[in-house]
TrEMBL record:
Domain of life: Bacteria
Statement: the UniProt record of this protein carries the keyword ATP-binding: no
Taxonomy of the source species: Bacteria, Bacillati, Bacillota, Clostridia, Lachnospirales
Pfam families recorded: Resolvase (PF00239)
Signal peptide: none
Species assigned in the record: Diplocloster agilis
Keyword Endoplasmic reticulum found: no
Full protein name: Recombinase family protein
Keywords: DNA integration, DNA recombination, DNA-binding
MF terms (GO), sorted A to Z: DNA binding; DNA strand exchange activity
Catalytic residue positions: S12
Length: 199
């Protein structure tokens, strides 16, 4: 059976940019039927289509991805997947965003060596940037708290009507649910306001 060209696309449910990846695959010459796509939420990294693709590919095939981070979430994972694909599966990889990462020319030792070095460098840079982003976010939150900025949902100001409805509620003219409905809030919030007003 002749060698095949496969494409792999991964997007999170938040970033709907699969079109950009799919167009890049088609421009490279990957057939629509050979493109595998996973759509994942941020916390979930189970990749059923990727796993199916890994069972399908054979030595001599080529795997096309748009960018190196499609292979994994972090430095170790990317390098491990690269090793499995190129060494264990003996499949060529083409990274469209980085022409140096093209291992199809297996006999070209220099090319393979350069691809491995570039991959390690890129993975390291990507992982370092992710750590820096998390650190900047944590520092930003800490600085905001120090300035007294309230993070999270804004507190709702208690409207004047609440005090009238509270009296009617306490004299048992209306229920918690009825009072909350008039104010457009939840029954829990109404009861919390009642407790706050008494304290």
């Amino acid at each position: 059976m002749p060698s095949q060209i496969y494409g792999y696309v991964r997007v999170s449910t938040k970033e709907q940019n699969e079109d950009r990846q799919l167009i890049a695959m088609q421009n490279f010459g990957v057939k629509q039927s050979k493109i595998y796509m996973d759509k994942l939420s941020g916390k979930d990294f189970e990749r059923p289509k990727y796993k199916r693709l890994m069972k399908k590919i054979k030595p001599g095939d080529t795997l096309v991805i748009k960018s190196i981070d499609r292979l994994g979430r972090n430095y170790e994972e990317i390098l491990e997947q690269w090793r499995i694909i190129t060494k264990e599966k003996q499949v060529g990889i083409v990274v469209l965003d980085m022409p140096l990462l093209d291992t199809r020319h297996k006999n070209d030792l220099t090319g393979t060596l350069i691809a491995d070095i570039v991959l390690q460098l890129l993975s390291y840079v990507a992982e370092t940037e992710r750590i820096n982003i998390r650190q900047r976010q944590a520092e930003g939150i800490a600085a905001a708290k120090a300035r007294g900025v309230h993070l999270g949902r804004p507190r709702i100001d208690i409207p004047v009507e609440f005090y009238i409805l509270k009296e009617r509620y306490q004299s048992r003219e209306i229920t918690t649910r009825e009072a909350a409905k008039i104010l457009g809030i939840s029954a829990t919030t109404f009861l919390r306001w009642v407790d706050q007003d008494q304290s």
